[in-house]
Design goal:
Elements: E1 15-19, H1 34-45, E2 50-55, H2 67-82, E3 89-92, H3 99-115, E4 128-130, E5 146-151, E6 153-158, E7 161-166, H4 185-194, H5 200-216, H6 221-240, H7 260-270, E8 277-280, E9 287-290, E10 297-300, E11 315-319, E12 322-328, E13 333-340
Helix pairs in contact: 1-2, 4-5
């Protein structure tokens, strides 16, 4: 039985590690070989106590494959994480490509409420939190590692300051470019039609039909193939028109500085307008910076998906007294960025 909770637990001492955008199910995934997974686990096991390993969304690509095939691809990775003796717990924050994982837990929560006579609808502020997830099903049977879920964000204290963790797809709502091709184009239209100021709950609820439809696409492979062609057509015409909104790939590959205005728009809706740091993934563009004229550090965890644009991959974040980004290279570990919190 899934357990629901509302109180934030104190984390044991140790660093927080963030991995996002592994996209198990996509043919471009990089963690599909056991030697590479083993190398990453060897690095993480040498990091000392890890209070929390955060899987920051798009871990499964349920827009490309249905759940069971995607879980088969992810099994060795999840099993390996569950065997790490220095990891106290794992927190899974779904993104847009694995939004279905959250919806499964959310629907179960509503169903249980109805069975208990509670006909209220859970809202997304505060964030929904669940003590068990389906990831536990592919963990090592002997593992005692907790696999929990939060959505759409989580807040942790690092170095005495709040750090906000979210996948980043809600930023698309504030993106002025290619609104018709973004995940949140539908929510914009619905909320504007209501003539109201958007809340995080509004954005999430208005977007549910789109994410629901995309999660059904893998049952008809031709739809998935057509969607990829659609983005390539957008790229083609953008290049002809020399549009400043040009996409360089089918990924939302904005540079981190191009997300600053979007982040500034989202943070008040999360209820943390001035955190010490904002951590996200989604764009597949690893990087760090600070919001202009603020103390807020910004870090993007990157991805584990191959690309033809030379974008660095196989990156992750570690937060303790500051935030650092590392990259797994062919024969070593590279420190790419470091930023104070």
């Amino acid at each position: 039985m899934v357990k629901f909770r509302s109180k934030k637990k104190e984390l044991p001492p140790g660093r927080i590690v963030v991995i996002s955008d592994t996209h198990f199910g996509d043919s471009a995934q990089l963690l599909n070989t056991s030697p590479l997974v083993d190398r990453l686990m060897e690095v993480l096991s040498s990091r000392g106590p890890i209070s929390e390993l955060i899987l920051l969304g798009d871990i499964l690509d349920l827009w490309v494959k249905t759940r069971v095939p995607a879980f088969r691809d992810a099994r060795y990775f999840i099993e390996s994480i569950s065997r790490l003796e220095n990891v106290s717990k794992v927190l899974y924050i779904p993104g847009n490509h694995d939004h279905q994982m959250f919806m499964n837990a959310f629907r179960l929560e509503v169903d249980i409420n109805i069975m208990q006579g509670d006909l209220s609808i859970p809202r997304f502020m505060p964030a929904r939190q669940y003590d068990e997830t389906l990831l536990s099903g592919v963990a090592d049977p002997g593992s005692k590692t907790e696999f929990q879920m939060a959505y759409p964000f989580a807040v942790r204290e690092v170095n005495g300051k709040d750090v906000v963790f979210t996948h980043g797809h809600h930023l698309d709502f504030f993106d002025p470019h290619f609104g018709f091709a973004r995940t949140f184009w539908l929510s914009k239209r619905v909320i504007r039609k209501r003539r109201k100021t958007a809340t995080l709950h509004d954005i999430e609820m208005a977007n549910l039909p789109f994410c629901g439809a995309m999660s059904m696409a893998p049952w008809v492979p031709e739809i998935v193939e057509g969607g990829i062609r659609y983005y390539r057509i957008i790229n083609f015409f953008a290049k002809i028109l020399r549009s400043r909104t040009m996409r360089h790939s089918i990924l939302r590959d904005t540079l981190i500085k191009e997300n600053y205005d979007e982040i500034a728009g989202l943070l008040p809706l999360i209820g943390h307008p001035h955190p010490g740091c904002f951590v996200f993934g989604h764009t597949h563009r690893p990087g760090m910076g600070r919001l202009p004229d603020t103390h807020i550090a910004v870090a993007n965890s990157g991805s584990w998906v191959s690309n033809d644009e030379g974008i660095p991959t196989m990156t992750w974040l570690e937060l303790e007294h500051d935030v650092k980004m590392y990259r797994l290279t062919d024969d070593d570990v590279e420190l790419m960025y470091s930023e104070g919190i």
